[in-house]
Amino acid sequence: MAAADTLAAGVARLEEAVAGAVAAAPARPARLGQFKTEVIKQVGPWKTMQDVERETMHWVDWYIENRLLSSIGYVPPAEAERRHLERIDPVDKVA
Predict the structure, then answer these.
(1) What are phi and psi of 63, to 5 degrees?
(2) Which residues of the chain are modeled with pLDDT < 50?
């Protein structure tokens, strides 16, 4: 298998991993398309699988930690989760 084919196969596996990691089931195709548009097509060309993995991890981190989500008040998902957990009574967390 040529190096380009190996890299392309690795990119496809990462795309699927990202699709599963960042969104609920009904939104997966849209998130995968967003990932492909924002990272795979714009940031490349890719020389090694490590380059693709590094950029994928940066994108996932941004998606969870920094992306502003309008449905929760234009705050990042991670911040909304932290705020929610701060409001929960510690006894409720045990169960």
Answers:
(1) -60, -40
(2) 24-25
